[in-house]
Amino acid sequence: MFNIKIDIHKLESDLKKLYNWKDWDRIQKEIFHTDEWPETSIDRLEEDLERPVQIIEGCEWDSTTNSYDVSPEIMHLYEKTRWRAFSILEPEADEENKQHPELYGKRCIYCRIWTRDFSKQKCPKCSNELLKLPLNEWD
Description:
It is built from 5 helices and 5 strands; from the N terminus they run αααββααβββ. The protein has helices spanning 8-16, 21-30, 42-49, 72-89, 91-98; strands at 54-56, 59-63, 104-108, 113-115, 131-134. Helix 4 (72-89) crosses helix 5.
């Protein structure tokens, strides 16, 4: 599993100087080292996706997986930062997206589960912050 130490101060500094997608590409490579991330093994992907739906606190939680074999701490920070970069670079689209929470679920990077219930803020299993998950469902 890939793990690195992220310099949070440098990340915050670089985000303040984020003006275009090229800047984001640089942040991904220089801070998150995304070009070094190993892919998750097929066995792990299959194992994750074969886990059954769970009912936790009256809500359905389905299994999910990560394409890259990166520590959950790094993946969580990366995904959270990626959403932040989107809101900085595409403020109008970000605002439009906020008007349609029904197009998103929530997922826990740590437990590799997700729900359609967008109101959830913390994972019921580990209490970590849940992140937005686009559902890719359009009328």
